[in-house]
Design brief:
The structure is a single chain. This protein is an alpha/beta fold. The protein has one domain: TIM Barrel (Alpha-Beta Barrel), CATH 3.20.20.70. Helix content is 42%, strand content 16%. It is built from 11 helices and 8 strands. The chain has an 8-stranded parallel beta barrel, surrounded by 5 helices. It is globular, with a radius of gyration of 17 Å.
């Protein structure tokens, strides 16, 4: 399976900064093949970034969506709008939305279904807090999030991505070991096997996210069940993100 490296810019970059990033990034990665790449800017930058990426190997993603097509939902954005601007991917269930904005597994499930129905590839984020890990509940939490988020989701193709992001490692500078990541990604893979069968589950990319940097990405990608990375802070600098893409392509 090709590695997938996804940039999640979160609430960063103006339109001008996003354009500058793309102008700096694209020439740096021209020779990097064998790796899939996506950038998820804030909504205000989607159209500008889409135009700059249109003839490149980099796909466009969004950081969120609503589950309705249109209507009286102030401040929301629909799956159709994301498709219209050129998005291929959309992040759902990120821990910052779960813990800061109160998104529940039911909401995540609705968003995931809406994304699939629109032809988007959802990147479903799951992960435990530090307290849950210390209480030996990490796998229980991951199982509950997976089962609830994927309830009544019938997949006929591996058109979904799972991102394992331990909450305690996001933006903290503390990251799980590659062995920890492999253990949890394998657990996720086994749960997907139970839901969708081995053939389909083996082709669903499982990413690791949480303080991913140039000095640790190769270790994660060398694990059997880690198929890529969802990158936060290290994706904001074009040179750093280009190096992560190189590592994804070369494996070292």
């Amino acid at each position: 399976m090709r590695k997938l490296i996804v940039a999640n810019w979160k609430m960063n970059k103006t339109i001008g900064e996003a354009r500058q990033f793309c102008h700096e990034l694209l020439p740096r990665i021209e020779g990097y093949n064998g790796v899939d790449i996506a950038i998820c800017p804030p909504f205000t930058c989607l159209e500008s970034v889409s135009n700059l990426l249109s003839n490149s190997k980099v796909a466009l993603g969004a950081q969120n969506l609503f589950w309705k097509e249109k209507g009286d939902y102030t401040g929301e954005i629909s799956p159709t709008m994301l498709v219209d601007v050129g998005c291929k991917y959309v992040i759902v269930g990120h821990s910052e939305r779960r813990h800061i904005l109160g998104e529940t597994d039911l909401i995540v499930n609705r968003k995931l279904k809406a994304a699939l129905e629109a032809g988007l590839i959802p990147i479903l984020c799951v992960g435990e807090t530090l307290q849950e890990r210390e209480n030996n509940r990490a796998k229980e939490v991951i199982k509950d999030q997976l089962m609830a988020s994927l309830e009544d989701v019938n997949l006929n193709a591996p058109n979904i991505v799972i991102a394992y992001e331990p909450v305690w490692a996001i933006g903290t500078g503390v990251n799980a070991s590659s062995e920890d990541a492999q253990e949890m990604c394998l657990y996720i893979r086994n749960k997907l096997n139970e839901l969708y069968g081995e053939e389909l589950a083996s082709n669903i990319p499982i990413l690791y996210g949480g303080s991913v940097k140039e000095n640790n990405l190769a270790d994660f990608l060398n694990e059997k069940d880690v198929d890529g990375a969802l990158v936060g802070g290290a994706s904001l600098d074009a040179q750093s993100f280009a190096e992560l893409i190189r590592i994804g392509a070369d494996g070292k």
